[in-house]
Write a structure and sequence with these properties.
single chain, 174 residues, alpha+beta, 4-stranded antiparallel sheet, 3 helices
């Protein structure tokens, strides 16, 4: 019956659910006291996050052998409390190259398969492991000074806009 899931987590049996995904790369624990039908106690939170994280990091695409997830981040590692820390995802996923969550999953749809081929026109997303994605500099004209590393960016921009007089600018080398 999951193949006909309407989304918005309507087909979820919350009494048997410990965690759920919502958004492109966020996992939430079904936390007692935060969720209406929470099953996970605050004492169980840390251990369950570790269990889920380890299982995800060990999951490989059987067709390619590539890891599906290469990094996980607990909420406290990446977010700073602005009074609403508890409403964000408990675990953020850094997907491996060529991996992403199903589009329906981002809106709470539960599919029948763990992995499936992505046949959509896709040029990228914001859910990959940031350590695997090189930086990008967009410019509407060729730069006078090539930029091959972040350390060169400030110097190249100074050259580009004709700013002189900064003795410590780095414009060459990695």
């Amino acid at each position: 019956h999951l193949e006909q899931d309407p989304g918005l987590l309507l087909n979820v049996d919350w009494s048997r659910t410990r965690a759920y995904g919502l958004g492109l790369n966020g996992l939430y624990l079904n936390l007692r006291g935060r969720e209406r039908n929470g099953t996970v106690t605050p004492v169980q939170r840390k251990a369950l996050l570790g269990e889920i994280s380890q299982a995800l990091l060990n999951t490989k695409d059987p067709a390619t052998g590539l890891p599906v997830v290469t990094r996980t981040y607990e909420r406290d590692e990446v977010y700073r409390d602005r009074g609403r820390l508890q409403i964000g995802p408990d675990l953020l996923l850094g997907y491996g190259p060529h991996m992403q969550c199903a589009q329906g999953s981002a809106l709470g749809k539960v599919g029948g398969k763990l992995l499936s081929d992505n046949r959509d026109q896709w040029s990228g997303n914001h859910a990959m492991d940031h350590e695997l994605v090189p930086g990008v500099l967009f410019s509407n004209r060729p730069l006078q000074q090539p930029v091959v590393s972040l350390q060169q960016l400030a110097g190249a921009l100074l050259v580009e806009f004709g700013v002189a007089g900064f003795p410590h600018r780095q414009t060459t080398g990695p």
